[in-house]
Write a structure and sequence with these properties.
- This is Phthiocerol/phthiodiolone dimycocerosyl transferase.
- Keywords: Acyltransferase, Transferase.
- 30% of the residues lie in helices and 26% in strands.
- The chain has a six-stranded mixed beta sheet, covered by helices on one side.
- It folds into two domains: 7-142, Chloramphenicol acetyltransferase-like domain (Chloramphenicol Acetyltransferase, 2-Layer Sandwich); 167-327 and 347-397, Nonribosomal peptide synthetase, condensation domain (Chloramphenicol Acetyltransferase).
- Helix 7 (217-233) packs across helix 9.
- By secondary structure, it is of the alpha+beta class.
């Protein structure tokens, strides 16, 4: 089969994420031209036909196919309390479509949320697609007619690109034996999630601390997260803990892969470090960064398969930390601006404590996600409070 046509089998790296919806939303202030946004979305879907695709069949034989008659939905909701929760509760079925757009319109306030199936976008592909949507929206709102030829190709299968440009799939095989699975009769657990948002000045303190201690903001946040989980577990001994982080390989292969050239080109890796409740998050974070750099120094990933041990219980020994980094401000027409980014998690059950870290408009945000299978709301509040206090201490120390 010619893989440049608007139909191809889903690659096994994509099948792992099939029917899991990725939703991020940009909050706006000002007057939004809904007609211009609708035109921008139609134009985007014409240029990038993967957004008009539907999944035919089931795994492992699922096929990504573009139907000429299918146009992704633009859903309009009223700006009411808990509207982001309502977006997260909207039904999802990749056989009906792998993308749609949700517009929340209120009085000079609302949200624009792009929903995509995880099989066709990782976080960076989503950000690239969303930024292109808002660039087109800004142009249409200004009365311009953006250029763009109708697309005829689907993104390349990620496994094929890994083999072509790296020679292998760079797995971290330690993740094949991680996390406590659910009991067969336990059912689906609920999620406990929320945001920790630092102010502009607090974020600047943290950046200054990262420079002073010769590490990264991601390293400092990772160190503070592991320490907060270690404090909740109790005890004073040093135990092995594991920071699990997705890594984007687009710039790590030769030639580099374009942002929208493929679908899922991120692989998760483990940085192991010993943590005691008395250890500084700076030292933990520097060790996490050093261990991660060691793993990534070789192209083959981590081949050891020894299982990681959850010595703390409840999977507190693990933290899945996704770093979106500094997200450049989204383009917007005159008279409005996109003030905040929201990550809406709707992928269902989770076993690791999870965190999404990003900085937008000079403010660092940490989204936390826990399963109520293992944690109470009180547990989560304690972890978030400890995390915030540790970040403030580190920032003030610089």
């Amino acid at each position: 089969m010619d893989l440049t046509t608007p139909e191809r089998p889903l690659n096994y790296l994509e099948l792992a994420h099939l029917d899991r919806v990725v939703i991020m939303a940009a909050e706006y202030e000002g007057e939004l031209d809904a007609g211009a946004l609708a035109r921008a979305f139609r134009h985007l879907c014409t240029v990038h036909p993967v957004l008009r695709a539907r999944v035919r069949g089931t795994a492992p034989e699922a096929v990504l196919a573009v139907s000429p008659e299918h146009e992704p939905d633009l859903v309009v909701l009223e700006d009411v309390p808990d509207v982001l929760t309502k977006i997260g509760e909207l039904p999802w079925d990749a056989t009906a479509g792998v993308a749609d757009l949700v517009l929340v319109q209120g009085d000079r306030h609302g949200y624009v949320a792009l929903r995509t199936d995880h099989s066709i976008t990782d976080a960076n592909a989503w950000l690239g697609t969303f930024r292109e949507l808002l660039r087109l929206f800004t142009a249409f709102a200004a009365g311009e007619e953006p250029a763009g030829e109708p697309g005829t190709a689907l993104p390349a299968p990620p496994a094929a690109l890994f083999h072509e440009r790296l020679g292998l799939i760079p797995y971290d095989r330690r993740l094949f034996h991680a996390a406590v699975p659910p009991e067969p009769a336990a059912g689906t657990a609920g999620l406990i999630s929320g945001y920790l948002r630092l102010g502009v000045e607090e974020t600047q303190w943290l950046k200054r601390a990262a420079r002073r201690y010769e590490t990264t903001v991601h390293g400092l946040v990772s160190g503070a997260i592991l320490l907060a989980q270690r404090v909740l577990a109790g005890g004073c001994e040093s135990v092995p803990m594991y920071c699990v982080s997705p890594v984007d390989f687009r710039r790590r292969v030769d030639p580099p892969v374009g942002e929208l050239e493929t679908t899922n080109f991120m692989m998760s890796y483990v940085a192991e470090t010993a943590v005691s409740p008395r250890l500084s998050p700076v030292l933990i974070g520097r060790e996490v960064k050093a261990r991660m750099d060691e793993v990534l120094a070789g192209p083959e990933g981590a081949r050891e398969q020894a299982p990681m041990e959850d010595s703390l219980g409840r999977n507190l020994s693990y933290a899945l930390i996704s770093n979106l980094g500094v997200v450049a401000e989204f383009p917007a027409p005159s008279g409005m601006s996109f003030t905040e980014i929201h990550i809406l998690n709707t992928v269902g059950d989770t076993f690791f404590p999870g965190y999404y870290v990003s900085t937008y408009r000079d403010r660092l945000t940490v989204l936390h996600i826990f399963t109520d299978r293992f944690f109470t709301r009180g547990d989560v509040d304690r972890i978030v409070r400890e995390l915030y206090e540790q970040l403030l201490i580190v920032g003030a120390s610089a």
